[in-house]
Amino acid sequence: MSSLAALSAAVERLWPLAGAESWDSPGLVLGDPEQPVRHVHLAVDAVLDTVDEAVALGADLLLTHHPLLFRGVTTLAGDTTKGAVVARLQRAGCALLAAHTNADVVPTGTSRVLAHQLGLVDQSPITAGALPGTGLGVVGRLPRPTSLVALARQLGDVLPPTASGVRVAGDADRVVETVALCAGAGDSLLDHPAVRAADVYVTSDLRHHPASDARDLMRLGHGPALVDVSHWASEWLWLDTAAEQLRRELDDVEVTLSDLRTDPWDFAVVQ
């Protein structure tokens, strides 16, 4: 029977902590390394819904993409969100572990999964990672040129539905072939030369001012069209790949994955 320590070692082999960004906080959040692990449940977010789901399934470990304790926390009181998550997991004997940017940068990471879903060829990382062969984001080519609106519709078909849908800045008929993308929040890469040289940049959580500036650069002929998708949706696709990798590493552990929508928005009103 595998222990939490053995599971953590498998996670380290798949997504080495040395590959994480310096500002990140992946790794073991809660649990005794010696406790047995028979069942791992995968989710993007450690929120009350996914915790309740993992507990109801009898999971010994909730493995999430996003760390629960990402920024400074001064209390885990039960009337705070993080405190309630920790309390529910602890009462159920369920550990918590996160694989975040260390899982983004590997060749089977979040951006690569999305790139494969779009059929991109000649893929390479946008940035070079700390470990050989790793890096944030992906730039590649579509098998054949298409219109910007057709690419947006393809993303709508590939990604799970969310209230925010797929938002686009650019002429619908613009021909695109070179695609840069970063699953999750990627506005930090807007000025990267590989992104600037692409026909379109696909990412999430684009803020007003950086997106507005990038849109004007596009109109001046110096940057890509923009496609903004749900942060959760762009990374949820990775769970299936992660589950298969874990099953190969530890064949005595049951691995399930959450299909709960943890995108924070429930509905949108079309004006």
Structural class: alpha/beta
Q: Based on Cα principal axes, name the global outline.
A: globular
Output the strand order for the largest sheet. Answer: 5-6-8-9-10-7
Q: SSE order, as H and E?
A: HEEHEHEHHEEHEEHEHEHHE
CATH topology (level 3) name of the largest domain:
Udp-n-acetylmuramoylalanyl-d-glutamate--2,6- Diaminopimelate Ligase, Chain: A, domain 1
Radius of gyration: 19 Å
- Quickly count the helices: 10
CATH uppermost class of the largest domain: Alpha Beta
Distance between the terminal alpha carbons, to the nearest Å? Answer: 55 Å
Describe the protein in words:
- This protein has 271 residues and is α/β, with parallel strands linked by helices.
- The chain folds into two domains: 4-102, NIF3 (NGG1p interacting factor 3)-like (Udp-n-acetylmuramoylalanyl-d-glutamate--2,6- Diaminopimelate Ligase, Chain: A, domain 1, 3-Layer(aba) Sandwich); 105-231, NIF3 (NGG1p interacting factor 3)-like (Udp-n-acetylmuramoylalanyl-d-glutamate--2,6- Diaminopimelate Ligase, Chain: A, domain 1, 3-Layer(aba) Sandwich), CATH 3.40.1390.30.
- Helix content is 33%, strand content 22%.
- The chain is built from ten helices and eleven strands.
- The protein has helices spanning 4-14, 48-56, 81-92, 101-104, 110-117, 148-158, 193-196, 208-219, 231-236, 238-249; strands spanning 27-30, 39-43, 61-64, 95-98, 121-124, 138-147, 167-169, 175-185, 200-204, 225-229, 254-257.
- The strands form two sheets. It has a six-stranded mixed sheet with strand order 5-6-8-9-10-7, with helices on both faces. A five-stranded mixed sheet has the order 1-4-3-2-11, with helices on both faces.
- Helix 2 (48-56) links the parallel strand 2 (39-43) and strand 3.
- Helix 2 packs parallel to helix 3.
- The longest helix has 12 residues, at 81-92.
- It is globular and about 60 Å long.
- The termini are far apart.
